[in-house]
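Can you give me the bound-state structure? Components:
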Amino acid sequence: GAGVSQTPSNKVTEKGKYVELRCDPISGHTALYWYRQSLGQGPEFLIYFQGTGAADDSGLPNDRFFAVRPEGSVSTLKIQRTERGDSAVYLCASSLGVGTGELFFGEGSRLTVL
Amino acid sequence: KNEVEQSPQNLTAQEGEFITINCSYSVGISALHWLQQHPGGGIVSLFMLSSGKKKHGRLIATINIQEKHSSLHITASHPRDSAVYICAVPDRGSTLGRLYFGRGTQLTVWP
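Here's the bound-state model for the whole set.
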């Protein structure tokens, strides 16, 4: 596609439910990043991939969060047993390579946990 | 961890004014990003710079690596420049993909 695509754009769920957020990066971009942004704050790093492997997942807040990128393209961020504190906008970005080049962001997935 | 501070947090200007937004960070870096975020959340990359100055239209970004400081300037500001401007820097360690973001500067330009 022309840009980074994220789905769903909005997700409302109940506490305790499982959620998947999808990111489709720009074709050919090997680096993919997940960030989380709470209201009034700057984005916060969660995890990034170089190809299929998670190069750094140290930003994931706890073991309820997990992300995969099995074929080196589309990535899925998975959140188990959601909590109200997980409510935020989840942003995905991609770049040609890690630490090099311009970042391209998706529009984000707004998650609301009731 | 790289601590990133932006100032001011909020900025209001009249159309045509020259705008400056500042960013300082705590750990030496290889490059710095300036990003623009409009209401609704979409983030656009404005600049990635590692030294000196870059210019794109009415936007100018400068960086002083020794002083760990960068500025974003907007000349002849316009209401459509109203947005949140965010600077971001990488982790100096091996994980260059990990970025630390400032909290952003909310710019409002009035006609």
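A couple of observations. The two ends of chain B are 40 Å apart (CA to CA). The mean pLDDT of chain B is 90.
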